[in-house]
Amino acid sequence: MSEENKPRRSMLSNLFWCLHRMCDFAPYGLAGFALLIPVNIALEYLNVYLPALAVAEATNGSAAAAALERVGWVMGGLMLLALFKAALELIRSRAIGIYRGQCAALHTRKSLSMFYQDYEKKDTRDLADRALRATQQWNGVQPLNDILDAGFGVLENVAGYLTFGAVVSLVSVWLIPLLTVPPVLSWLAACAYNRWSHGADEKTRPIEARLDYVVSRGRSFSAAKDIRVYGMAGWLRACRDDLTRELRAWDSRRALRMFLSRLADLVLILVRDAGAYALLIALFVRGEITVDQFVLYFAAVASFASWVGAFIDSLTKWHRVSLSISDFRTFLDWPEHDGAGEAHADDHMNRAPEIEFDHVSFRYDGAQTDTLHDLSFTLHSGEKLALVGLNGAGKTTLVKLMCGLYAPTSGTVRLDGVPVSKFRRRDYYRLFSPVFQTVRTAFFTIAEHVSAQPLAQTDLKRVGDCLRMAGLGEKVDSLPKGALTPLDKQVDAQATELSGGEAQKLMLARALYKDAPVLLLDEPTAALDPIAEKNVYQAYEAMTRGKSSLFISHRLASTAFCDRVLYLENGRIAEEGSHDALIRRGGKYKRLFDIQSCWYKGGEEEGA
């Protein structure tokens, strides 16, 4: 395993971390784990003792009634302990369910709150995927549960080792190393396999991700039309087959290494058991132990061997799942990169703020050059600013910097003269109502999409007003359940499906519902028809009243209603001014405007 793939935390550290989480979420579960240790040892001891007692009672001439009474007491003890064990296992199982669910919630909370710029990176999302596996069950392994089972299992097996080791040592002290050394060698072989397997996971995970993507695209209803019309089915099947072959090759290597590890384990167990039982048989043949002693020691040796084997198995499981717990903890401990908290959004909520970019540059992680270069401009209080430019000019990146999803590589973004770094990120987000380029809907109701809150916390009248202002009122009024209609028919048969333009209007209604002092619209009309787009522009004055707003569009005619236009080119401001002023200037903005408008003019002339 490479240095970067080695877990930063020890097995013991990971166990204590999980014990602490169990103590936080379901402390009674720890009592269940702890009490099971003496109960299991007592059960095992009575199971070993019972056959020897029965043989002794049958061979020493005891009265039948007395013999049955003594055997009955032992059997009664076994029954009571078995009932107590079942109750403890039920308590433990309930506690583990709560603990595992709460740990999964920690992962979800981290995913939802992590600084967007960090979470966007592939390495971070890969770590998040590995961490998620600690909360799930795969190939019979559940790391968050198994590490507790393994930790308490080690304690239990040590106690059993000492208890039954004392019994076995009465026969011969040589049995102790004979029964101990082979399992230790087996454990070392298992650890080597675990380390190789964890390293192999790093190589197979990208293959699995690509395979999952190809399979999901094949099942996706949204992609069904393209797959059929463009004849993509054969291509997708070929991709799936190629990726499946790659995974099978890795699975074959994994199976071979596992087989060799298990083969060594079986050989060592054979040497161990054969030597121990040969010694017992020799002692019995020489008359050094009686029949009942032979039965007792024979069972004790078998039990002692099982405690040693279980101890090794617990250590192996502990080592295996600890690697996954390390990933889980690394993800949860990822630095938050939050602001200082010296400034507060409440101080800026009741007026249209001013936002200043002061020599701001930004470079994406791993990129060779900056996407934005030394930008300096100000979005004035109450101003409607348009941002235009060709694809890749840096418009969306600028929006993400403005609303705090990214931090500048150099330079400073200020809100009312206060550096953005002075705000807590979640507090700063309250100042913005964005509509991003990519529209995402879920299976919630239309009203919940607009409020971004549960129905119990949603103002339905306000939802209706925002839907009408965004141009979606008639559509929602036509639905039997109105704004309470859920989306996504794949989840709910009574749901409705929105077109691309309707979904874009829904996102606009969400931004209006939030009613933040800064409105950011990134291509808000890209999926709208011309009439709907015209209606949005006409409502834009009402939408932006008392707010500062930034509007991004590729359609330059739509910028005429803005106070000022910034023309962005290769991450720099190439031109700046009102729409009319830039047209009169005759520069790059004017040339791009003419290219777009000529198609409309040509159509008009041809129609005339």
Could you explain the architecture of this structure?
The chain is an alpha/beta fold and 608 residues long. Helices cover 62% and strands 9% of the residues. It has helices spanning 11-25, 28-59, 64-113, 116-119, 122-133, 143-169, 175-219, 224-229, 233-285, 291-332, 395-402, 425-429, 446-451, 460-469, 473-477, 500-514, 530-543, 579-585, 588-607; strands at residues 355-362, 372-379, 384-388, 410-415, 418-419, 432-435, 518-522, 548-552, 564-569, 572-577. A 6-stranded mixed β-sheet has the order 6-7-8-3-9-10, with helices on both faces. It has a 4-stranded antiparallel β-sheet with strand order 2-1-4-5, covered by helices on one side. Helix 2 packs antiparallel against helix 10. It is elongated and about 120 Å long. The N and C termini lie far apart (74 Å).
Supply the number of helical segments: 19
Q: Determine the structural class based on helices, strands and strand pairing.
A: alpha/beta
Tell me the span between the first and last alpha carbons: 74 Å
**Overall mean pLDDT:** 84
The H/E string reads: HHHHHHHHHHEEEHEEHEHHHHEHEEEHH
- Lateral arrangement of strands in the main beta sheet: 6-7-8-3-9-10
Beta fraction of the residues?
5-15%
Biggest sheet features:
6 strands, mixed
- Count of β-strands: 10
The percent range for helix content is: 55-70%
Q: What is the alpha-carbon Rg in Å?
A: 35 Å
pLDDT < 50 stretches: 1-7, 603-608
Gross geometry: elongated
